[in-house]
Amino acid sequence: MPKTQTATLRPDSLDSAALLPSLSGLLRHWLPRQRWFAGKGCAVTDLALLSVTELRPDCLHLLLRAEHAELPGSGRPGGGAAHDCYQLLLGIRESLPPRLAPAAVLGRVTEGPLAGLLVYDALQDPCSASLLLELLRAPGTTGALRFESDRRVAIPSGLQPRLLEAEQSNSSLVYGDTYILKIFRRVRPGINPDLEVPWALARQGCTRVPAPVAWFRTSSPWDATLGVLQPFLPGGVDGWALALTALAAERDFTEEAYEMGRATAEVHLALAAAFPVQFQGAPESRRLASGMAGRLRDATHAVPELLPYASGLRSAFTELASLATPRPAQRIHGDLHLGQVLRAERHWHVIDFEGEPARPLPERRRAQSPVRDVAGMLRSFEYAAHARRPWRPDWALRCREAYCAGYAAEAGWDPRAEPELLRAYETDRAVYEVLYEARHRPDWLPVPMAAIERLAERPALRRLTP
Fold it and tell me: Residue 398 to residues 185, 243, 252: CA-CA distances in angstroms?
């Protein structure tokens, strides 16, 4: 096998005016095929290079603004353009590294300063992945990038990297089953909650969430978090996999659900201690209900199957808008489900505090009711029950009850005592799920539609019938 030849970039290669034309054709074809690209199924209509940093002669770090046609139901009636900033790590060589899969290749450049060179996703290259760890081990500045760490933690060198395949909205590298580096593909200005929240929880002594040991950020075109390194939980299995295993074995899952509820409450209590707690009354209830009603309206434009249930679903938001008693709001997880909890060494851990990447960063960092997280987990139990045939509604109901009981035992209050709030958040989540499944997994659409039918009928408020 011939040796891989490393490219030496000319100084003008790093000039965005010269570099982007070289890469534009490859990127327009490659980006829409990535799991983390927001405009799935949409052509890229415009590209702008926001920053470029040479990490080594054959490895470039890019922040790229990509515009695509707006997706139906995304809050912009009539369509239009949407754009996001994406983080890329590109390898530039004359030939492919021997251990790199052909699927990592964007293609060979035909024009501009990179003409004749091969471009590939460098996160799939062990050499480039190892370079990122070395930069985090020795904090400092490289161009617009700033690498930082918790000085109390000594990160060993020589840990072998591997890229996780299962992620949807980001990319993660595991180093020797010791650390995991999450790289945020969609970048927004400001500190990412997946750094901010675990760091604050670590200061509270909360062991349910792995504490950040290192991270990197950018100062151009604005300050933003780019990636976070945390301890990896070897042998950890997520709640979704464990739930499906229990269903396949026709085994009860209530003990696990109860402990999961306790873990959720413990994290919520630590968050309430780490961040300010607010009390939201009638104006906030109306504002929250209005936002949910707007998302329902947009979703019905995109998924006509929702139309027969729209009136019943809106009643959940009308009930929410009528709530006047002040309720506590605090920092929460924001996207809690069975895939966001891991069991390792018989303990439950909560991961991925980024929230929904499609939502604006200020919204994800906003104080919200902890009932939203509870509703997300309750919806996840129902998803799991539908994933196996025949559907097991009794299994889902027992899990829901056990989870809420575990939460109440740790938190000192029962989320089932907030029926209007719980129904509204479950309804909002189910509407989101319908839109997601219609776009990406049409075969799964009956799962959230079953919940839509139930929630539209306004079940007895103090029951948790799935």
Answer: 37, 13, 9
pLDDT tens digits for range 168-197:
789 999 999 999 999 999 999 999 999 999
Segments forming the whole domain that contains residue 177: 130-231
Tell me, yes or no, whether 58 and 202 share the same domain.
no
> In total, how many domains does the chain have?
3
Question: Is 35 buried (19+), middle (13-18) or exposed (0-12) by CB count in 10 A?
Answer: middle
CA-based nearest residue to 149, from 206, 199, 189: 199
Distance CA 416, CA 404 (A): 7
395-452: per-residue pLDDT in tens? 999 999 999 999 999 999 999 999 999 999 999 999 999 999 998 899 999 999 999 9
Tracing tokens 């030849």 back to the chain, one arrives at: 5
Q: Rounded to whole angstroms, how far apart are CA atoms 122 and 164?
A: 14
Cα 284 to Cα 290: distance, rounded to the nearest angstrom: 10
- pTM higher than 0.85 for the full model? yes
User: 270 and 365 in one domain?
Assistant: yes
